[in-house]
Amino acid sequence: NHPSNQSVDEFALEAKKFADKEYLLALYKGEALVGEEKEKIIEYMKKGHVHMVNGSRMKDVFTGEPIKGEMLFMDDGKYSWTSKLIYYVDKYNLELPENFIDHILNQ
């Protein structure tokens, strides 16, 4: 059951069943976002309101390499995300829920 087709409770329950790497691999699409659409989504996410900062080091679950910067918890008043999610969308084209993509592209 794809995350965009689940309630928040269903998504949270399913997400708890996976370790970071397996969960991200389950969402990885590879060609989900490209070109101007991808750039617009990443820029929008980077401009989100920061409401919490976690100073611990982040690590890429695919390569084990450190991710630059602090973990930021961000939102736009409707959706929430982390700076780590922006990293995975940018580097690996991680698939985002369609309703979130539509929300961003319709701004």
Shape: globular
Order of helices and strands: HHHEEEEEHH
Physical arrangement of strands within the biggest beta sheet? 1-4-5
Alpha carbon gyration radius: 14 Å
Descriptive key words:
two-stranded antiparallel sheet; 107 residues; alpha+beta; 5 helices; 3-stranded antiparallel sheet
Short synopsis of the structure:
The protein has helices at 8-15, 20-27, 35-46, 83-92, 98-105; strands spanning 49-54, 58-59, 66-67, 71-75, 80-82. The chain has 107 residues and is of the alpha+beta class. A three-stranded antiparallel sheet has the order 1-4-5.
Describe the structure.
Helix 3 runs antiparallel to helix 4. It is built from five helices and five strands; from the N terminus they run H-H-H-E-E-E-E-E-H-H. It is 43% helix and 17% strand. The mean pLDDT is 80. With 107 residues, the protein is α+β, with helices and mostly antiparallel strands. It is globular.
Question: How would you summarize the topology of this molecule?
Answer:
Elements: H1 8-15, H2 20-27, H3 35-46, E1 49-54, E2 58-59, E3 66-67, E4 71-75, E5 80-82, H4 83-92, H5 98-105
Antiparallel strand pairs: 1-4, 2-3, 4-5
Helix pairs in contact: 3-4
